Amino acid sequence: MMKRYTMKLIGMLMLLLSLSACKNGEATTVNQLPKEVKIGIIRVPNDKQVAISTQKFDQYFKDKGIETEFLFFDSGVAANQALVSGSIDFAEMGYTNGVVALAKKLPVELIWLHDVIGENEALVVPENSKVQSVADLKGKKIAVPFSSTSHFSLLKALEEAGIREEVSLLDMETADIVAAWERNDLDAAYTWEPTLSHLKDQGRVLLTSRDLAEKGYMTSNIDLVHKDFAKKYPELVVDYLSALTDGQNVYFEEPAKAVAQVSKDLNLTEEETLKQMNMSQWLRPEELISNDYLGTNAKPGHFHQVFLDTAEFLVEQKSIDQIPSEQEVNEFINSEYIEKLIERK
């Protein structure tokens, strides 16, 4: 009798543990959570950096016993390589490298759009240059990180000016652009902050990505998640987006606090930080799933077409071999986590 009672008690305990481990088939127990989450960053004053600087990630990860490690990547190319190797779980990058990730069938999906790029990416020439317009760059040497948002914007600007095939483009990382700029080896460069500010100290801006966005060439910074991580920890992906949203809220509701914290972490003056923050358009979750941007999984938005258009550009540049299908784009851009975030909030 005692044995039967003991077995029944054990069975009930196992059932309770099983129920606590599952919520709609997605949540996991504390013992099953990862010990660490590795996050790729680009160190710019956006929603992600505000979330980092104001410890918003701690509320969703550290409180669950999960450590967060933030790893800087100078380009989306390097971030994609880290995702392929499985050495990071999330990565921030210009969306053009997201298109590359899709075309090369990397095990990732797009879950967030940080901002629409504005004056924080621009085409710059030396202060003493005789170049006064994009058309004047005919026959000149221009540096830009290939397959980046800046590369896409630069080619559209050259195309608009009718000189796309009449310039020498140099594929350079941002640090190399700075070194070449200081040696006076370049006629122009298209790059992003904080490198951009360094070039502007001894240069002039010819046009910005905001100028090009107004002509229909929108560029943006995105966030990707490794599919294995998302499949195993879907609620942690929503937690991740919650931290980003909390970072946005600090910026919108307590801008002085956001600027002060981010300036300290990025070693920028508060004036520089605020200026860079104001250079791009930050998007709330509700805006992200509108038709103008990501849309929903059921009804894709305008950004899906931007992805397809950019894929054509990357095929021309031989950065990818073929244009992904519309279905592949729709599957790659996964708005499910943003929708769950909005439901949770």
UniProtKB/TrEMBL annotation:
<keyword id="KW-0732">Signal</keyword>
<dbReference type="InterPro" id="IPR007210">
    <property type="entry name" value="ABC_Gly_betaine_transp_sub-bd"/>
</dbReference>
<feature type="domain" description="Solute-binding protein family 3/N-terminal">
    <location>
        <begin position="36"/>
        <end position="255"/>
    </location>
</feature>
<dbReference type="InterPro" id="IPR001638">
    <property type="entry name" value="Solute-binding_3/MltF_N"/>
</dbReference>
<dbReference type="InterPro" id="IPR010068">
    <property type="entry name" value="Peri-bd_TauA"/>
</dbReference>
<comment type="similarity">
    <text>Belongs to the bacterial solute-binding protein SsuA/TauA family.</text>
</comment>
<feature type="signal peptide">
    <location>
        <begin position="1"/>
        <end position="23"/>
    </location>
</feature>
<dbReference type="Pfam" id="PF04069">
    <property type="entry name" value="OpuAC"/>
</dbReference>
<protein>
    <submittedName>
        <fullName>MetQ/NlpA family ABC transporter substrate-binding protein</fullName>
    </submittedName>
</protein>
